[in-house]
Amino acid sequence: MTKRVLLARPRGYCAGVDRAVATVEKALEAHGAPVYVRKQIVHNRHVVDTLESRGVVFVDDTDEVPAGAIVVFSAHGVSPAVHEQAAARGLRTIDATCPLVTKVHQEVKRFARDGYDILLIGHQGHEEVEGTAGEAPQHVQLVDGPEAVDSVAVRDPSRVVWLSQTTLSVDETLHTVARLRQRFPELADPPSDDICYATQNRQVAVKAMAAECDLVLVVGSRNSSNSVRLVEVALDAGARSAHLVDYPQEIDPRWLDGVQTVGLSSGASVPELLVQQILDYLAGRGFAEVQEIVTAEEKLVFSLPRELKRSFGGVSSARPSLDAQPQQPDGERETGGNRHGGKSIDQRGANGERGGD
Ligand code: SF4
Description:
It is a single chain. By secondary structure, the protein is of the alpha/beta class. The protein has three domains: 4-15 and 197-323, 4-hydroxy-3-methylbut-2-enyl diphosphate reductase, catalytic domain (Cobalt-precorrin-4 Transmethylase, domain 1, 3-Layer(aba) Sandwich); 16-97, Rossmann fold; 100-183, Cobalt-precorrin-4 Transmethylase, domain 1, CATH 3.40.1010. The chain contains ten helices and twelve strands. It has a five-stranded parallel β-sheet with strand order 10-9-11-1-12, with helices on both faces. Helix 4 (99-113) packs parallel to helix 5 and helix 7 (197-210) packs parallel to helix 8. Mean pLDDT is 89; it is low at 314-344 and 347-356. The structure holds iron/sulfur cluster. Residues 14-17, 75, 98, 100-101, 166-167, 196, 198-199, 226, 268, 356-357 line the site of iron/sulfur cluster (SF4).
Protein backbone atom coordinates (compact mmCIF):
# COMPACT_ATOMS: atom_id res chain seq x y z
CA MET A 1 0.00 0.00 0.00
CA THR A 2 1.28 3.48 -0.91
CA LYS A 3 2.27 5.72 1.91
CA ARG A 4 0.10 8.83 1.79
CA VAL A 5 -0.75 12.08 3.50
CA LEU A 6 -4.33 13.29 4.02
CA LEU A 7 -4.17 17.06 4.25
CA ALA A 8 -7.06 18.72 6.06
CA ARG A 9 -8.66 21.81 4.59
CA PRO A 10 -9.52 24.27 6.03
CA ARG A 11 -6.39 24.50 8.11
CA GLY A 12 -4.02 27.27 9.22
CA TYR A 13 -4.61 30.99 9.40
CA CYS A 14 -8.08 32.28 10.23
CA ALA A 15 -9.38 35.78 9.54
CA GLY A 16 -8.69 37.01 13.10
CA VAL A 17 -5.07 35.83 13.16
CA ASP A 18 -4.44 37.19 9.71
CA ARG A 19 -5.78 40.59 10.76
CA ALA A 20 -3.76 40.60 14.01
CA VAL A 21 -0.45 39.77 12.32
CA ALA A 22 -1.13 42.26 9.52
CA THR A 23 -1.91 44.87 12.18
CA VAL A 24 1.51 44.48 13.80
CA GLU A 25 3.27 44.51 10.44
CA LYS A 26 1.40 47.67 9.43
CA ALA A 27 2.18 49.32 12.77
CA LEU A 28 5.87 48.58 12.26
CA GLU A 29 5.70 49.98 8.77
CA ALA A 30 3.87 53.14 9.81
CA HIS A 31 5.69 53.94 13.05
CA GLY A 32 8.98 51.99 12.91
CA ALA A 33 10.45 49.79 15.63
CA PRO A 34 9.97 49.23 18.42
CA VAL A 35 6.28 48.38 18.43
CA TYR A 36 5.13 46.86 21.70
CA VAL A 37 2.61 44.02 21.78
CA ARG A 38 0.85 42.96 24.97
CA LYS A 39 1.13 39.15 25.19
CA GLN A 40 1.82 37.03 22.11
CA ILE A 41 -0.05 38.60 19.20
CA VAL A 42 -1.22 35.07 18.29
CA HIS A 43 -0.18 31.80 19.92
CA ASN A 44 2.47 30.66 17.48
CA ARG A 45 6.22 30.46 18.07
CA HIS A 46 7.23 31.08 14.49
CA VAL A 47 5.05 34.18 14.15
CA VAL A 48 6.27 35.62 17.46
CA ASP A 49 9.96 34.89 16.74
CA THR A 50 9.71 36.43 13.27
CA LEU A 51 8.04 39.60 14.52
CA GLU A 52 10.61 39.90 17.33
CA SER A 53 13.38 39.77 14.76
CA ARG A 54 11.78 42.80 13.06
CA GLY A 55 11.65 44.94 16.16
CA VAL A 56 8.47 43.94 17.94
CA VAL A 57 8.77 43.80 21.71
CA PHE A 58 6.35 41.43 23.43
CA VAL A 59 5.44 42.32 26.99
CA ASP A 60 3.26 40.68 29.61
CA ASP A 61 1.58 43.88 30.68
CA THR A 62 1.19 47.49 29.74
CA ASP A 63 3.30 48.73 32.68
CA GLU A 64 6.33 47.37 30.80
CA VAL A 65 5.66 49.73 27.87
CA PRO A 66 7.42 53.13 27.97
CA ALA A 67 5.03 56.07 28.39
CA GLY A 68 3.80 57.41 25.05
CA ALA A 69 4.84 54.31 23.07
CA ILE A 70 2.59 52.26 20.77
CA VAL A 71 1.14 49.04 22.14
CA VAL A 72 -0.92 46.51 20.21
CA PHE A 73 -3.46 44.35 22.03
CA SER A 74 -3.40 40.74 20.84
CA ALA A 75 -6.07 38.80 18.93
CA HIS A 76 -7.25 37.23 22.21
CA GLY A 77 -8.65 40.49 23.55
CA VAL A 78 -8.22 42.41 26.78
CA SER A 79 -10.48 43.46 29.62
CA PRO A 80 -11.67 47.07 30.07
CA ALA A 81 -9.21 47.35 32.98
CA VAL A 82 -6.29 46.88 30.58
CA HIS A 83 -7.63 49.63 28.31
CA GLU A 84 -7.89 51.91 31.35
CA GLN A 85 -4.34 51.14 32.51
CA ALA A 86 -2.99 51.89 29.05
CA ALA A 87 -4.92 55.16 28.83
CA ALA A 88 -3.72 56.20 32.30
CA ARG A 89 -0.12 55.78 31.14
CA GLY A 90 -0.66 57.74 27.93
CA LEU A 91 0.05 54.75 25.67
CA ARG A 92 -1.03 54.82 22.05
CA THR A 93 -3.07 51.63 21.64
CA ILE A 94 -4.04 49.57 18.60
CA ASP A 95 -6.61 46.91 19.38
CA ALA A 96 -6.10 43.73 17.28
CA THR A 97 -8.74 41.75 19.20
CA CYS A 98 -10.47 39.37 16.79
CA PRO A 99 -13.96 40.70 16.00
CA LEU A 100 -15.35 37.27 16.94
CA VAL A 101 -13.86 37.63 20.43
CA THR A 102 -15.25 41.16 20.63
CA LYS A 103 -18.67 39.68 19.81
CA VAL A 104 -18.45 37.51 22.97
CA HIS A 105 -17.40 40.58 25.01
CA GLN A 106 -20.54 42.34 23.78
CA GLU A 107 -22.68 39.36 24.81
CA VAL A 108 -21.16 39.44 28.32
CA LYS A 109 -21.95 43.14 28.65
CA ARG A 110 -25.51 42.67 27.43
CA PHE A 111 -26.36 39.70 29.66
CA ALA A 112 -24.70 41.35 32.67
CA ARG A 113 -26.80 44.47 32.06
CA ASP A 114 -29.89 42.25 32.00
CA GLY A 115 -29.00 40.76 35.37
CA TYR A 116 -27.91 37.29 34.24
CA ASP A 117 -25.33 35.04 35.83
CA ILE A 118 -22.99 34.19 32.96
CA LEU A 119 -21.38 30.75 32.89
CA LEU A 120 -18.33 31.17 30.67
CA ILE A 121 -17.08 27.82 29.41
CA GLY A 122 -13.34 28.08 28.84
CA HIS A 123 -9.87 27.30 30.05
CA GLN A 124 -8.63 28.77 33.31
CA GLY A 125 -5.77 31.20 32.72
CA HIS A 126 -6.30 31.60 28.96
CA GLU A 127 -5.87 35.23 27.91
CA GLU A 128 -9.12 35.29 25.97
CA VAL A 129 -11.10 34.12 28.99
CA GLU A 130 -9.44 36.70 31.25
CA GLY A 131 -10.35 39.48 28.82
CA THR A 132 -13.92 38.28 28.32
CA ALA A 133 -14.62 37.73 32.04
CA GLY A 134 -13.14 41.16 32.75
CA GLU A 135 -16.11 42.81 31.02
CA ALA A 136 -18.35 41.96 33.98
CA PRO A 137 -16.38 40.12 36.65
CA GLN A 138 -19.28 40.24 39.12
CA HIS A 139 -21.52 38.32 36.72
CA VAL A 140 -19.14 35.81 35.13
CA GLN A 141 -18.14 32.38 36.44
CA LEU A 142 -15.63 30.27 34.57
CA VAL A 143 -16.66 26.69 33.87
CA ASP A 144 -13.53 24.79 32.85
CA GLY A 145 -15.02 21.58 31.44
CA PRO A 146 -17.78 19.20 32.52
CA GLU A 147 -16.10 18.34 35.81
CA ALA A 148 -16.43 21.96 36.92
CA VAL A 149 -20.22 22.00 36.61
CA ASP A 150 -20.97 20.67 40.10
CA SER A 151 -19.27 23.61 41.80
CA VAL A 152 -21.26 26.31 39.92
CA ALA A 153 -23.55 28.42 42.11
CA VAL A 154 -25.99 31.01 40.70
CA ARG A 155 -28.21 33.67 42.25
CA ASP A 156 -31.35 32.99 40.20
CA PRO A 157 -31.60 29.73 38.19
CA SER A 158 -34.12 31.39 35.83
CA ARG A 159 -31.57 34.03 34.72
CA VAL A 160 -28.53 32.02 33.70
CA VAL A 161 -26.79 31.96 30.30
CA TRP A 162 -23.79 30.06 29.01
CA LEU A 163 -21.18 31.63 26.73
CA SER A 164 -17.82 30.23 25.68
CA GLN A 165 -14.24 30.79 24.67
CA THR A 166 -13.98 30.83 20.87
CA THR A 167 -11.45 28.01 20.48
CA LEU A 168 -12.91 25.07 22.38
CA SER A 169 -13.74 21.54 21.32
CA VAL A 170 -17.31 21.67 20.02
CA ASP A 171 -18.10 18.19 21.36
CA GLU A 172 -16.69 18.77 24.83
CA THR A 173 -18.48 22.11 25.07
CA LEU A 174 -21.81 20.51 24.18
CA HIS A 175 -21.13 17.92 26.88
CA THR A 176 -20.47 20.69 29.42
CA VAL A 177 -23.64 22.50 28.35
CA ALA A 178 -25.70 19.31 28.75
CA ARG A 179 -24.38 18.92 32.31
CA LEU A 180 -25.14 22.58 33.06
CA ARG A 181 -28.65 22.19 31.69
CA GLN A 182 -29.29 19.23 33.98
CA ARG A 183 -28.54 21.55 36.88
CA PHE A 184 -30.19 24.66 35.42
CA PRO A 185 -33.08 23.67 33.09
CA GLU A 186 -33.76 27.31 32.18
CA LEU A 187 -30.18 27.89 31.04
CA ALA A 188 -30.19 30.33 28.08
CA ASP A 189 -28.05 29.76 24.99
CA PRO A 190 -25.75 32.36 23.39
CA PRO A 191 -27.46 34.38 20.63
CA SER A 192 -25.08 32.74 18.12
CA ASP A 193 -22.18 30.27 18.30
CA ASP A 194 -19.28 31.56 20.37
CA ILE A 195 -16.93 28.83 19.17
CA CYS A 196 -15.80 30.53 15.99
CA TYR A 197 -16.17 29.37 12.39
CA ALA A 198 -12.43 28.69 12.07
CA THR A 199 -12.24 26.48 15.16
CA GLN A 200 -15.31 24.55 14.05
CA ASN A 201 -14.18 24.16 10.44
CA ARG A 202 -10.74 22.85 11.41
CA GLN A 203 -12.29 20.31 13.79
CA VAL A 204 -14.74 19.10 11.13
CA ALA A 205 -11.92 18.62 8.60
CA VAL A 206 -9.80 16.63 11.09
CA LYS A 207 -12.79 14.49 12.06
CA ALA A 208 -13.44 13.69 8.40
CA MET A 209 -10.04 12.05 7.96
CA ALA A 210 -9.00 10.88 11.43
CA ALA A 211 -10.41 7.35 11.26
CA GLU A 212 -8.30 6.64 8.17
CA CYS A 213 -5.08 7.85 9.80
CA ASP A 214 -2.43 5.83 11.62
CA LEU A 215 -0.95 9.12 12.73
CA VAL A 216 -2.27 12.69 12.75
CA LEU A 217 0.18 15.57 12.96
CA VAL A 218 -1.19 18.97 13.95
CA VAL A 219 1.11 21.91 13.36
CA GLY A 220 0.76 24.41 16.18
CA SER A 221 2.19 25.67 19.45
CA ARG A 222 1.42 24.21 22.87
CA ASN A 223 -0.22 27.41 24.10
CA SER A 224 -2.55 27.49 21.07
CA SER A 225 -5.91 26.33 22.38
CA ASN A 226 -7.46 25.53 19.01
CA SER A 227 -4.35 23.57 17.93
CA VAL A 228 -4.34 21.44 21.10
CA ARG A 229 -8.06 20.78 20.58
CA LEU A 230 -7.34 19.44 17.07
CA VAL A 231 -5.09 16.73 18.54
CA GLU A 232 -7.87 15.74 20.97
CA VAL A 233 -10.48 15.77 18.22
CA ALA A 234 -8.29 13.54 16.01
CA LEU A 235 -7.89 10.95 18.77
CA ASP A 236 -11.61 11.06 19.64
CA ALA A 237 -12.49 10.59 15.97
CA GLY A 238 -10.41 7.44 15.58
CA ALA A 239 -6.83 8.37 14.73
CA ARG A 240 -4.44 5.72 16.06
CA SER A 241 -2.08 8.43 17.35
CA ALA A 242 -1.83 12.22 17.16
CA HIS A 243 0.83 14.77 18.03
CA LEU A 244 1.26 18.55 18.09
CA VAL A 245 4.48 19.93 16.55
CA ASP A 246 5.78 23.40 15.78
CA TYR A 247 8.48 22.23 13.35
CA PRO A 248 9.54 19.04 11.51
CA GLN A 249 12.50 18.64 13.88
CA GLU A 250 10.01 17.85 16.63
CA ILE A 251 8.71 14.76 14.83
CA ASP A 252 10.02 11.58 16.48
CA PRO A 253 10.87 9.25 13.55
CA ARG A 254 9.49 6.35 15.59
CA TRP A 255 6.02 7.87 15.24
CA LEU A 256 6.19 6.82 11.57
CA ASP A 257 7.00 3.15 12.25
CA GLY A 258 4.44 0.99 10.46
CA VAL A 259 2.43 4.05 9.39
CA GLN A 260 0.76 4.11 5.95
CA THR A 261 -1.51 7.15 6.28
CA VAL A 262 -0.56 10.40 7.99
CA GLY A 263 -3.22 13.06 8.54
CA LEU A 264 -1.94 16.65 8.60
CA SER A 265 -3.62 19.84 9.79
CA SER A 266 -2.65 23.10 11.44
CA GLY A 267 -4.12 25.44 14.01
CA ALA A 268 -5.65 28.80 13.21
CA SER A 269 -2.46 30.70 14.15
CA VAL A 270 -0.12 28.66 11.93
CA PRO A 271 1.44 30.03 8.72
CA GLU A 272 1.13 27.68 5.75
CA LEU A 273 4.89 27.55 5.21
CA LEU A 274 5.21 25.44 8.38
CA VAL A 275 2.76 22.90 6.93
CA GLN A 276 4.80 22.82 3.74
CA GLN A 277 7.93 22.06 5.80
CA ILE A 278 6.16 19.07 7.37
CA LEU A 279 5.04 17.90 3.91
CA ASP A 280 8.67 18.10 2.72
CA TYR A 281 9.80 16.11 5.76
CA LEU A 282 7.17 13.44 5.09
CA ALA A 283 7.97 13.30 1.36
CA GLY A 284 11.58 12.59 2.29
CA ARG A 285 10.35 9.55 4.20
CA GLY A 286 8.26 8.09 1.42
CA PHE A 287 4.99 9.93 2.00
CA ALA A 288 4.93 11.58 -1.41
CA GLU A 289 1.22 11.17 -2.19
CA VAL A 290 -0.81 14.03 -0.78
CA GLN A 291 -4.60 14.14 -0.90
CA GLU A 292 -6.52 17.14 0.37
CA ILE A 293 -9.65 16.44 2.39
CA VAL A 294 -11.84 19.50 1.85
CA THR A 295 -14.81 20.05 4.12
CA ALA A 296 -15.39 23.81 3.74
CA GLU A 297 -14.24 26.90 1.89
CA GLU A 298 -13.37 30.02 3.87
CA LYS A 299 -13.51 33.51 2.40
CA LEU A 300 -13.76 35.70 5.49
CA VAL A 301 -11.47 38.74 5.70
CA PHE A 302 -11.65 41.29 8.52
CA SER A 303 -10.90 45.00 8.23
CA LEU A 304 -7.87 46.38 9.97
CA PRO A 305 -8.41 48.09 13.34
CA ARG A 306 -9.64 51.63 12.86
CA GLU A 307 -6.67 53.14 14.77
CA LEU A 308 -4.44 51.71 12.05
CA LYS A 309 -6.72 52.73 9.20
CA ARG A 310 -6.30 56.31 10.37
CA SER A 311 -2.50 55.95 10.12
CA PHE A 312 -2.87 54.66 6.56
CA GLY A 313 -5.48 57.15 5.39
CA GLY A 314 -8.23 54.82 4.30
CA VAL A 315 -6.87 51.27 4.17
CA SER A 316 -10.04 49.33 4.66
CA SER A 317 -9.06 45.70 4.63
CA ALA A 318 -6.73 43.41 6.51
CA ARG A 319 -5.32 42.61 3.07
CA PRO A 320 -2.43 45.08 2.93
CA SER A 321 -1.82 46.86 -0.35
CA LEU A 322 1.75 45.55 -0.32
CA ASP A 323 0.68 42.04 -1.15
CA ALA A 324 -2.84 42.43 -2.45
CA GLN A 325 -3.44 39.35 -4.54
CA PRO A 326 -6.49 37.87 -6.21
CA GLN A 327 -8.27 34.94 -4.63
CA GLN A 328 -6.73 31.75 -5.94
CA PRO A 329 -8.95 29.20 -7.64
CA ASP A 330 -9.37 25.98 -5.72
CA GLY A 331 -6.22 23.93 -5.66
CA GLU A 332 -4.00 26.80 -6.81
CA ARG A 333 -2.63 27.80 -3.50
CA GLU A 334 0.14 30.29 -3.26
CA THR A 335 2.42 30.20 -0.28
CA GLY A 336 5.42 32.16 0.84
CA GLY A 337 3.93 35.64 0.28
CA ASN A 338 6.81 38.05 0.49
CA ARG A 339 6.35 41.61 1.59
CA HIS A 340 9.50 42.36 3.48
CA GLY A 341 12.49 41.54 1.35
CA GLY A 342 12.15 37.79 1.68
CA LYS A 343 11.54 37.85 5.41
CA SER A 344 7.76 37.97 5.48
CA ILE A 345 5.86 35.59 7.63
CA ASP A 346 3.83 33.45 5.27
CA GLN A 347 0.49 35.08 5.82
CA ARG A 348 -1.56 33.22 3.29
CA GLY A 349 -4.11 30.79 4.48
CA ALA A 350 -4.42 27.25 3.24
CA ASN A 351 -7.12 28.19 0.78
CA GLY A 352 -5.34 30.89 -1.13
CA GLU A 353 -7.01 33.58 0.91
CA ARG A 354 -5.94 35.82 3.66
CA GLY A 355 -8.10 34.61 6.18
CA GLY A 356 -7.65 35.59 11.43
CA ASP A 357 -6.44 31.48 17.70
S1 SF4 B 1 -9.56 31.31 16.04
FE1 SF4 B 1 -11.56 32.30 15.70
S2 SF4 B 1 -11.81 33.76 17.41
FE2 SF4 B 1 -9.60 33.19 17.31
S3 SF4 B 1 -8.67 34.74 15.99
FE3 SF4 B 1 -9.29 33.05 14.66
S4 SF4 B 1 -11.33 33.62 13.91
FE4 SF4 B 1 -10.89 34.88 15.69
